[in-house]
Amino acid sequence: MLDALHIAATGMQSQQTNVDTIANNLANVNTPGFKKSRVSFTDLVSQETRQLASTGIDAVAGLGAATRTGMGVGVASMGRVLDVGDLKKTDSPYDIAIAGQGFIEVQMPDGSRAFTRGGTLKVNPDGMLSTLGGYPLKPGIAIPENATDMTITADGHVMVRVSGQSTATDAGQLELVKFPNASAITPMGDNLYRTNDNTGEPIAMRAGDDGMSQIQQGFVESSNVKLVDEMVSLMVAQRAYEANVKIAQASDEMLGMINNLRR
């Protein structure tokens, strides 16, 4: 009975984590570049039990065949689903999106590295092309103060035209990186991510080299959250939580019956 209560508790805790994750996905359904999360579950270590034997040699020892019972469920991992969201046309020269897989490296103030899927850019006070939060993209790309036009090609070249010039000059090239296990990447907020022990080291790649991952100027990537899918997942999680509550209630009632037998 106590095992049943514990097992039901693990089920409720796991489904609560699942519901929290789904709620965060739904809250970010309109957040540009947002990548939804998914919870993976695993069964907990089972325990070996023996039942009393009624016949045979085992009856002398009082033991029967061993059986194994599970001890509930736990959260195995929470990973990012990196499916590319729909690209929304904005026509703004400072909006970029990655059509395909990959990230753009960002230099943080403390010298650490972060990564982004794009979004709205700007020129920071130091004249560097940066994220909306002011963090420069790597490799550093300087935009002249007298720039009148900026074009970012599909392979990441930043072409800048300045006042008094008829032709654009190449200010640098945005580079993409990928990871051996990109789904394990850790979100930092502001459309930024950081690596961890599970992602592996970033691998440099150039936009367009694989024939798929290209940089699209004048577009932003929409959230890859699908409202209908999340609502269905929420209903399934809710029903699973309710089932575990009923198991806990039934176990409690059975314990109450046992206690009443002593009176």
Task: Describe the protein's architecture and organization.
This protein has 263 residues and is of the alpha+beta class. It folds into 2 domains: 2-81 and 225-261, no CATH class; 87-221, no CATH class. 25% of the residues lie in helices and 33% in strands. The chain has 3 helices and 19 strands. The chain has helices spanning 2-27, 58-61, 227-261; strands at residues 37-43, 47-50, 66-69, 73-80, 87-89, 95-99, 103-107, 113-116, 118-123, 129-131, 147-152, 157-162, 169-173, 176-178, 186-189, 192-194, 203-205, 214-217, 219-221. The strands form 6 sheets. The protein has a 6-stranded antiparallel beta sheet, with no helix packed on it. Helix 1 (2-27) packs antiparallel against helix 3. It is elongated, with a radius of gyration of 27 Å. It starts with a helix and ends with a helix. The relative contact order is 0.20.
